[in-house]
Design brief:
There is one protein chain. The protein has five helices and no strands. With 97 residues, the chain is mostly helical.
Length: 97
């Protein structure tokens, strides 16, 4: 799934080097864009559910500042936090990508 996501954000370009099996590095700008797009989806789902950041934090067992930072693309969240957010929003993890 992660390779598919990286492929999507690279405009269809392969993330695998043609000469080796190692993945090519993703630039900091590309990672920031992925985090920002993810954060926007979290925010859109939160607002669609008429939840405040505080409400989502309580439902997700995360701190409100963590929710805020995630929505602004400032957090590189863990898999645990990813699943907590999806659960708090009532969506599947794949819906956030």
């Amino acid at each position: 799934m992660l390779l598919q996501l990286m492929h999507k954000y690279r405009g269809g370009k392969s993330v695998m080097s043609s000469n080796s099996k190692k993945s090519s590095p993703i630039s900091k700008a590309e990672l920031l864009e992925i985090r920002q797009n993810f954060g926007t989806k979290v925010k859109n789902f939160r607002k669609a559910n008429r939840l405040s950041q505080e409400d989502l934090a309580l439902r997700s067992s995360l701190h409100r500042n963590y929710i805020s930072d995630t929505e602004r693309g400032r957090r590189n969240i863990s898999f645990d936090a990813l699943f907590k957010l999806a659960s708090g929003l009532g969506v599947n993890v794949r819906d956030l990508f």
